[in-house]
Predict the 3D structure of the following.
Amino acid sequence: MTLLTSPSASIVTLTNVEKHFGPVRALSGVSLSIGPGECVGLVGHNGAGKSTLVNLINGGLVPSAGEVSFPASGATRALEAGVRSVFQELSLCPNLTVAENLRISHDNLRGVGWRKRAHTEIAASLDSIFPGHGIDADTTVDRLTIAERQMVEIAIGFAPRGRDARLVILDEPTSSLDAGIAQQLLTHIRTFCAKGGAVVFISHMIGEIFQVASTIVVMKDGRIVASRPTAEFTRATLVDQMGHVAAETTDAVAQRRAPGEEVLHTGDGLVARKGEVVGLAGLAGHGQAEALAQLYLDRTSAWWGDKVPKVVFVAGDRGRDGILPLWSILRNATVSILSQTARHGLVDRAAEARVAAAWKTRIGIRTDDVRNLILSLSGGNQQKVLFARALASDAPIVIMDDPMRGVDIGTKQDVYAMIQSEAARGRTFLWYSTETEEVCQCDRVFVYRDGQISARLDGADITEDRILEASFQMQEAAA
Amino acid sequence: MIRLFARHRILLPAVSLIVLLAATFYMQPRAMSYFGINLLFNLAIPIALATLAQMMIMMVNDIDLSLGAFISLVACITATVLHDQPVLGMAILAALILAYACLGALIHWLELPAIVVTLGMSFVWAGLALTILPSPGGSAPAWLRTVMTVKPPLFPMAVVAAVLIAGLSHVLVIRSGIGTVLRGVGGNAASVGRAGWPLLRLKALAYALAGVFGVLAGMALVGLTTSADANIALRYTLLSIAGVILGGGEFVGGRVSAVGAVIGALTLTLAASFLSFLRLSPDWQIGAQGAILILVLTARLIFTRRDRTQG
């Protein structure tokens, strides 16, 4: 087969690829070519388009415009071209054994004795990448630790599976591995590339990127903003390339509030004072949402609820933990104050209507009648109803879990103003956001990495650079 | 010991069956004979087949509430059409299996909840059964009667059949490649799809297998009872679910065991006889069966919890 194709042809080539999700442009005009022996380090902040790019390469998504081709193999599908993906979210079947999981992605394992062959193949792959791993190929995956599962997944990615792997995409492969094991992986990547394979390596550990990548591709706002050999980057220039979009908007915040008393102090170092807007930043999925959920549940889960809740919650994932889809706008907005206004356990409808009408004008919910169904509203207006629900109660602390997801810019401005005015009245806001522009409006920011607070920034220290720096691990992993 | 039970899920159902069997023999020593054992486990064969049918569905994270009605329908067809016109009867049964496959494909394609679709289908199957056999009657084909009453040497038919069914379905579901992929659908459908498998066809296959085992259950039942009735197997829906769970299976996550399912079915059948030997009024028997189920499930939960905390 190698005779028919030239050895230097690139494994995958993207030409002017675009991807839209409805009106949202996730990727615009991306051209990229990955050849044998290359290890591409892909970096970028949240929502820069890394996952979209990866999914276009591995065939999980179809481009809206442009072309994805595989010149080296001449195949039309990514799987046939030897493109493999190892995802950050674990994608093994937990009920199957390690060897059986190989069978899922290797359909040439057929006939009598396939178990033995699967066992040999996965054991060999594990041995070559992670010498001394101690994983038995006949254990069911749910009995393995998270790190072991990640190792198995990587081993399946590099396993021969009938046709050799040509391009392996690793999305945050080291996030759950300890330093020693991560080094074994980096060593294997270098050998793999030296033998003519290619790797796309996504990591928030900048040290690892510099150790292993031959080329670094920086993405921002759905575009490739830099693509150069690793040697031409330094850590500082790399962070520079990733950031600097919304720097001008940061000075919009007036530092006018005198610090009030401390209203919140958690074990892991999260501190909030009365009247403050506290931001939680960092890359998505590094423990911010979990920290907020824990905080909220700790203060609200009691056998008998308080009349006025201590904390209210504004959901970001509206469908999952926000709206009550079968209820009207009115009922959705006032569900948080039922216990405040109820008399003898009965709902006070007049009070409900009063509150709903007041918030409709205050926060600007665009509807003729608040008795319409919540689903008749656009996403941004649904989100406003959720804000109204939270702010209508007298709770002193408001927790917001990335509430601006998929919200238009007009609504955002309305809500920013509302947050600032409510904070001035003495409410405390805890605001997790994936958008740096929003985090820069906060009085204090905690940056999360790997489920822990990696930096605390106050006042003037809150800049995009500092947040980026703390989101990515700059130090070499201590090997 | 906790770790042993948690790692080998099959141990707990096996131990439950042995304990129950020992208790039965203690209560009624005369049951400990070729004839006695056959009598005890005779009706377990159709239940075991029904349990395996249910397991195929639960393996892909769905549940089938129409199984009892479906098996009743098969029984009615077996006792009438299959007896009178064997070729037509076979064709109808094959069509029923195809219908099951289509049902699986439809549930996957339209993302319908299986519990609702199968509940609806149960009325369809029950209606068809009533149309075919409005009043109890019909008769089993002679060859089927022969198969179900065969007297093998050493062990009674019920035991031999149970072992055979358990072995064959174990190979099909646990050992074979396609069975592994089907269990993978229950474990993590997204990753199976991402590896290039057509989920629609896999789901249809799982349902078709359920159809096959459902048809076998209905035929075995008629072979034992010699005649049919449109309501003959309505209890099987819940018995089959209980059997899968008793045998170490779970509602979601593709964690199933074919051998366990057969053992679960045997345990349920035996529990009924055991309670009769206790002279428990039939009014209490269903409740007592439920209590046994809860007892075994509690034991399993304790084992897995302890195992997890001990790490």
In short: The first helix of chain B runs from residue 2 to 7. The domain at 2-25+32-310 of chain B is CATH 1.10.3470 (ABC transporter involved in vitamin B12 uptake, BtuC). Chain B is about 75% helix and 0% strand. The mean pLDDT of chain B is 91.
